[in-house]
Amino acid sequence: MDSFIIKGGTPLVGTVPISGAKNAALPILAATILTDEPVYLSNVPQLQDISTMLELLGGMGATFERSSEAAYTELKAQTSSIFRYQAPYELVKTMRASILVLGPLLARFGKAQVSFPGGCAIGSRPVDLHLKGLQALGADITVEGGYIHAAVPDKLRGAQFTFDVVSVTGTENVMMAAVLAEGTTVIHNAACEPEVVDLANFLITLGAQIRGAGTPHLTIEGVTRLGGGEYRVMMDRIEAGTFLAAGAISGGDLTITDVEPHAMNVVLEKFAAMGVELSVSANQIRLNTKGKRLKAVDITTAPFPGFPTDMQAQFVAMNAVAKGRSTVVETIFENRFMHVQELARMGADIKLQGNSAYIAGVAKLTGAPVMATDLRASASLVLAALVAEGETHIDRIYHIDRGYERIELKLNDVGAHIQRQK
Ligand code: UD1
Hints:
The protein starts with a strand and ends with a strand. It is built from 14 helices and 24 strands. With 422 residues, the protein is α/β, with parallel strands linked by helices. Residues 23, 26, 97, 125-130, 165, 167-170, 195, 309-310, 332-333 line the site of uridine-diphosphate-N-acetylglucosamine.
């Protein structure tokens, strides 16, 4: 299992290009199931989760032509040859987002079997709302032998559906199914995340009729078929925020490029509240700490446009070394503070109570052996290691490879000292 050895203490200075968004590319790849014509995608990030999605779709019979042998930032997807309608346990257990194929398979082929996603490190993460939404459109759903068996007796039909809880992939699944349903679907309390909007824009490029993306009410007029098309995946706002955090925690001066700052407003406001200087232009953001210690900020996670849960761990790491006390409240996932115990091993002073972390900023962290537990928790350990005195050894970094493209190379390019050990 790969690990990172990180020598801390160097302020990061320079420019980092941001990749395409994992959480947009995954549903967009799943959505290619909806058309039998070729789809050309660009800005697809090179990540383990994307490889898993390609393997999943490939196992169904889809084919992908890559821009080069080794890379797939540009892809031609062709799903006309799909002959199997199943997402097997072996893949779903490594990536919960595999559930995203359920809606598209049902809409195009009228049947699907998807292994029931189990719990994961950050909580139980049920899929009940995905299933209720698809049932509202007329799907018959049973769970047997660990699999969700879904079938459409006649045709999916448009319906009104209200999500009890805002769900990103739930909204995406129901939206993808509704695109080929007969009649009009209205989704209330829909997720407003930019990645949901990106998926809607992709579907619109293929001929779908969707209004209201980015608002809590989505209206979808079903069409009989979708065509092919070309689409560029949006930038990864979580990767962007993580690199800004790397600049901030290391006391550096970092510029990130290829970004869409408007998708990051609340996160940028929190950076500003930490006392860093931000210069924002159309597609790049410069963060300069001017060598000053960060000021602690309070955070409460919430669905978009609130503060993203996927940036919570990174802000806990920054608060751990910031001046002052802070409270970080996690409202989306019940068990998303796995990084706290590891940060404590590096000298952080954090008390956990229920869904809140009470942080007293310390003057310094020290390198230690720590373990990555989930994707964003691992990112927070890398951040802490960048500022820690001495050497930090992070084990199980396969979690990081799921969601960050070449993170150690990008960080080393701007002055970090990270070595991957096989
Ligand atoms: C997506 C993102 C993930 C991010 C999360 C919240 C992808 C591939 N992943 O995950 O990175 O952290 O949004 O922004 O886009 N819930 C239910 N029933 C359901 C579905 C969800 O109760 O059927 C609950 C969840 O337990 C959680 C909340 O709803 O408490 C939000 O989860 P959800 O938005 O669905 O997260 P994901 O779509 O899995």
